């Protein structure tokens, strides 16, 4: 199986400047390649492909000695492939009839990653293995950068990426042939209902808390954004204010990911089969503002609900849960969430009136009363087990 490992870098002042220059030159290359494609099609109706732009790289490097020539050829090819992938995704959306979203030029704050496609080609993981207490990654044009390796790397390192988050630098390793770590069987199964009051409610009645990290940081974030709004564009003080806002958002993101890992690990350790809702989070958090001619209803309430859903991090949690379940040898089943919160787990009666409040479920047919999320989790589990039995019978 493939797995990613992310570690904090400890660059020197000169190395940090070199990393910033590397990121900026790759951003410039990306934007120049995008302009090349746009101009060629607008002026001559010619479509430029990745192969054409990759062939031009040697001339670009030769004409910019000490600039683009400093960096790895393969990492620059990866940046051109990134642009090519954006164009292919654009044309796929056009064919599917969705909103296309033409590839855009990358501003300074919108290009934060450089990739080296192969370990040993312009980069080298664990470049100083003889060092007794530290790990280093070597990057062409930057040197040997110290890595804060807080856990062992498993499998074979295939690609190496450098990522900037606010003022921090990280190295991300994509590894193949990572061995699975199966956990002993428990014989237990569970359905889980995603929520805002509790992040997860199991069919057994357990609740995993939703820490609401964004809400906890809201006051500091509001102060930082208000301070940013007062700063003059292009000033040094504004750059510092932007960095402060970015650092707060990065902290919330790390807290949310850490909690997702802990919650997912607890579920994977306790259950052999886990059934969850197949949620379309992008659709659920779509704006209710509407248009001028047809304005939406309850916009403020919908906006608050969207913010709570995104703060809970359902998508992050489900992605982490899928990875951990695969590694542990657990079975993960996704079911259609339609009417799971309106169906009585005892008699099967479906009605909107069954759910009196966010937390209370009372069946209007049989009188069954339960916590609404627990009732939904039981329905989710039954649906998942039915799908599993049908698949096994087939």
Automatic annotation (TrEMBL):
Lineage top rank: taxon: Bacteria
Keyword Zinc attached: yes
Protein name: Transposase
Species whose genome carries this gene: Nonomuraea coxensis DSM 45129
Domain Probable transposase IS891/IS1136/IS1341: 181-287
Domain Transposase putative helix-turn-helix: start-end pairs: 1-43
Location of the Cas12f1-like TNB domain: 314-380
UniProt keywords, alphabetically: DNA recombination, DNA-binding, Metal-binding, Transposition, Zinc
InterPro entries: Cas12f1-like_TNB, RNA-guided_DNA_endo/Transpos, Transposase, Transposase_put_HTH
Annotated Pfam families: Cas12f1-like_TNB, HTH_OrfB_IS605, OrfB_IS605
PANTHER family (alphabetical): RNA-GUIDED DNA ENDONUCLEASE RV2885C-RELATED, TRANSPOSASE
UniProt cross-references to NCBIfam families, sorted A to Z: guided_TnpB
Family membership: In the N-terminal section; belongs to the transposase 2 family. In the C-terminal section; belongs to the transposase 35 family.
Metal-binding listed as a keyword: yes
């Amino acid at each position: 199986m493939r797995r990613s490992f992310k570690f904090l870098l400890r660059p020197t002042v000169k190395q940090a400047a070199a990393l910033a220059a590397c990121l900026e030159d790759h951003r410039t290359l990306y934007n120049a390649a995008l302009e090349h494609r746009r101009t060629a099609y607008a002026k001559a109706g010619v479509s430029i492909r990745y192969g054409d732009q990759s062939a031009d790289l040697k001339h670009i490097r030769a004409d910019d000695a000490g600039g683009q020539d400093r960096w790895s050829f393969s990492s620059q090819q990866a940046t051109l492939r990134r642009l090519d992938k954006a164009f292919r995704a654009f044309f796929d959306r056009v064919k599917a009839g969705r909103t296309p979203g033409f590839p855009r030029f990358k501003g300074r704050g919108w290009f934060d990653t450089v990739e080296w496609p192969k370990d040993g080609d312009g980069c080298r993981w664990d470049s100083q293995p003889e060092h007794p207490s530290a790990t280093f990654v070597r990057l062409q044009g930057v040197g040997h950068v110290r890595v804060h390796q807080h856990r062992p790397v498993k499998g074979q390192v295939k690609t190496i990426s450098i990522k900037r988050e606010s003022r921090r630098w990280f190295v991300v390793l994509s590894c193949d042939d990572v061995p699975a770590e199966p956990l002993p069987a428990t014989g237990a199964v569970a359905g889980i209902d995603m929520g805002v009051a509790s992040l997860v409610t199991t069919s057994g009645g357990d609740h995993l808390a939703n820490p609401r990290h964004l809400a906890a940081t809201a006051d500091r974030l509001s102060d930082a954004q208000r301070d940013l709004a007062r700063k003059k564009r292009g000033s040094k003080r504004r750059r510092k204010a932007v960095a402060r806002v970015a650092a707060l958002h990065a902290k919330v993101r790390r807290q949310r990911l850490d909690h997702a890992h802990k919650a997912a690990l607890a579920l994977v350790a306790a259950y052999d089969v886990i059934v969850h809702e197949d949620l379309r989070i992008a659709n659920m958090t779509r704006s209710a503002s509407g248009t001028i001619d047809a304005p939406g209803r309850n916009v403020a309430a919908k906006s608050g609900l969207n913010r709570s859903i995104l703060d809970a991090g359902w998508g992050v949690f489900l992605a982490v849960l899928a990875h951990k379940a695969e590694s542990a040898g657990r079975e993960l089943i996704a079911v259609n969430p339609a009417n799971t919160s309106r169906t009585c787990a005892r008699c099967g009666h479906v009605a909107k009136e069954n759910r009196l409040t966010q937390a209370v479920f009372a069946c209007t047919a049989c009188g069954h009363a339960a916590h609404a999320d627990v009732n939904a989790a039981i329905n989710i589990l039954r649906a998942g087990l039915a799908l599993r039995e049908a698949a096994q019978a087939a």
